Structure formats: C-alpha cells, structure tokens
# Entry
Amino acid sequence: MEPDRQIEIQLGHMCNNRCVFCVSGQRTERREALPLAGDPVIEKLREGRARGLRKLTLLGGEPTIQPEFMRVLRAAVDLAYEEIVIFTNGAKTARASFVDEILETGGNFTFRLSFQGATARAHERTTKKLGSFARLVETMGNLRDRGQRITVNMCVVRSNFESVADFPALLLPYGVQQLHLDMIRPLDAGERTEDEMRAMLPRYSDLVPHLEAMVAGFPAGFDVNIGNLPYCVAPAIAPVIHHDGETTFTVSVDAGDDLSEPWDKYQVKARDKVKLERCRECVFDDRCSGVYDTYRRIHGTAELQPVTRARLPLVDPEQRLFTLHAAPLVGALRAFAPSPPFSTANVHVDTHEERVTASFARQGGGSLHLELRRPGGGAASTDRFSLHLVAASAVDAAAVALLREVFARLCAAIEARVHHGVGPDAAFHGPARELTVRDLDPRIGACLSRLRDHAPFGALRWEDVTLERGGRQAAVALRHEDGTGVTLSFAMDGARVRGSYRLDREVTEPPASLVEGVRAAMMALRGLER
# Structure
C-alpha cells in the first residue's frame, strides 16, 4: 500500500463568494455555514503528523475568513508540516499586510488561488462577486513580490470555459507555477435543480478547442493539468489530463459543520462515475475513471468513443504518451529470459514520467537498471523507443551483451527501425555515465553522444561502435542502402578530437542519399545543426 502523503482539512463552509457550482457559497447564502472551532482542527493536524503526513492543505469555503484561521496556521507550522497549501479566493490576501502576517509564522507555503475564469467577466459571472477578479490579481502581485509559490485552480463550468485560453497571458507574468482545471463534480455543487445542473455543465467536446488553445499558449514544461476530462474527447492534450492524484486524506465538514474522519479523496470522488462497455477497447481505460453519472444523464455518451491501439499513433504521433505505445515492449520485457549472469527483469511502468524501467539482478550480487523512453538519444534508439542505461554495479562485456540482447528482442517485438544500436559506450549516455569515464575519454564520448542524438542519417543504417586505445579513439560503422559501408572515425590528437570518414569501396558517382547521409553525420559530429 502506498504510504500516506498528505492531508487536506476543510475549515468550514463560510465563503465570501457565491460560485455557481459550489456548495459552500450556497450554504453561506442560506446562513447554514458557521465559524469552525480551532481545537478540533488542531487535533486533526496532530493526528496527521502522527501518521507521518508531511503536506497539509487548508481549504473551505474560504479558509482565511475563519476566525481561527491564523491560530490553526500557527499550529500547523509548529507541528512542522513540510508544506502548507492555502487554498484561497484572494479576498484577504489582496492586502499585503495579511500576506506578511501569514509569512511571519515561518511556514513553507504554497498559495493555491481560486480563479474561476481567466478574465474578469468569466470569473465574476461564476463567483457572483464583483471585484473578486481584481483582488486575485492583487494577491498574485503580493505573492510574487514576496517570492511565494503560486498555483491556480479553476472548476470548469459553462460560465467560464470559453475564457481559459487567456490563462497563459494572465498567469505567466506573475510566476505562477501550476494551473489545474477540473471538471465540475455534480455531487459537490450543493442542492441544485435539474435546470441549474444543465445550465452549469458544459458538454466536454465543446471545451476541447479552448483547452487546446490554452495548453498551446504555455511554454514547454509548464505544469498545466486538467482533471476528470475523458481522454477520448481530447486525445491531443491527453498528456495533461489526469483522473487522480497523490494519496490525499480529506477531513471535511458535515451538515452540522462538524469535522469528519479522514477519507480517501480520489477513491470517494470516483464513486458517482460510470464507464461504458466500449471503454474496454480504449488505450486510456486503465487511466480513466469515466464520467459523472449526472453528466451522462444530461449530455449522453455519444461523444465518448474509444481510442483504440490502432488509432493511437494517429492521435499521438510524437509518443508523448509513451507508456501507452510501449505496451508490446512491456510484454516482451516481462517474457524475456536473459542469459547468465542475469535473471529475469522486474518491470515497472511509470505513467507519470512516461517511461518503463527494468531491473536485472546479477548472479553473485549486483544489478543493472535500464529505462525505455520516447525515441532519441540514450544508449540505443529506434523510431519507436530509446533505451537508457541508468545504473549498473558493473558495465562489463556481460552487461553490454545483456543490453544488446534486450534491444534486439524489443526491436523484434514491434518491428522497430533502428536509429542507433547498443555499443561498448552504452553507459556514457545517461545517468550511469560516471561508471565508464575511466574507459572512454569524455571528449570521444561527447562525439558519440552527438551522433546518437542526431541519428538516423538518412539512408545510412547504424551498424556498430568500436573503441580503441583505451577509449581515446572510436569508430562508428554505417551502411548505405546500396551496400556501401561508411566508417566515421575520431581520435584524440593532443587535446583535440580529429574526425574523418571513409567508404569501404570506391564510388565514382555516389548517390545523393549517400552524400547527404555522410554530410548529416559529419555535421552532427561537429555539433552543428543539420
């Protein structure tokens, strides 16, 4: 069982917004939301630390308007929670003095801001609170000026979804580090009529162009994620869709504003979802928890069409969802029986980092660990995957032989086209590099890395790598489709690397594809762009 990681505690339902989708605003408007006593909350904080929980989220309603908020916050700091997330609508944190009061407690904070639209119009027609957008923008400025970590959340409803493409322009100037959008969960919306639910719930397929524009507007690497959108509706942005998260225990308030016992957040949130029989055909089946039953009742399920394995390359040609494409590779690894001195691999699929890891135990002690990732670089690569040696107790002839054997087996399993293959320099190209620096001059290793990173070279097929003179000289054997062999050689000459190429036969009128391939390889060797 995964260790407990974090706890979130709802500090009552009191809120100064009236969001169209939220039970807290509804209960506050009905005068059903009460101030929460601090002592029971602090006791839950102690229980959480006793269980080894290290991260805390305080949410509401609006937690900062609770009379006991600062007392609870100081208690959390005193209990040494490593990170305290304050989930706020920004009404009070728009005052710099209040932010300073929070920071004076000495805690390590993340401020999660509840933007309910990327424009003032969208946000305020969702929160039903004039001026709430400007206060959030003021909050971002206060937090940025104090070097605080800022993240943003939005619940996707009809009144705000068309604004989301404006998020990059809104958030990036303030150094926001994460944006999370979540599909509304009907059971969290309070007591709503059928007409209110229909007015609130957008059709998922209507969201797609706006979400795609939003994702495209952020720079590569920005942490944007979308919760509970069916993958099949928007496969082009599937890498940023998620249906769960890290293990979270939630302490909420009941109808009488009493604190509940901790419950598993993501397990509970999946209880009112449904999946269709045809979902079993979809490559996202294991990742997707389905759609909310209320959504199914209102909008139907015609838009939910499975992404089959045959269709996957069409919707994800860049293999950003590598582990989905790698299913045949995983099967081949698990069935693979390596030659001595290694034993059968322990295989793990990491869908968060989109990589496959395999660990081989070595007879007499020691091990070897490799990863499969998207094509490009590494110790070997094809048009379907790349192989990386990440750790090894020893990189000797037996280890290189194992890598060659694994690579050949995987290539056969999916009929992959080899870009560059395993050689005696395998450990140089990745985290295990330090294991073989003594056997391979790092300048020669850098030349090999450039070649591997840029391969393939047109019509030239990579055949092998040889090392000589204690790793101070290397040769890469390539072969043209007409049978002509090309050898790229480079060796240390004093402090410099000198490179050259030769053909294994005289060619009076070399085909253009041969010339272009050699030129591309030499340019890569020199560190130039093709």
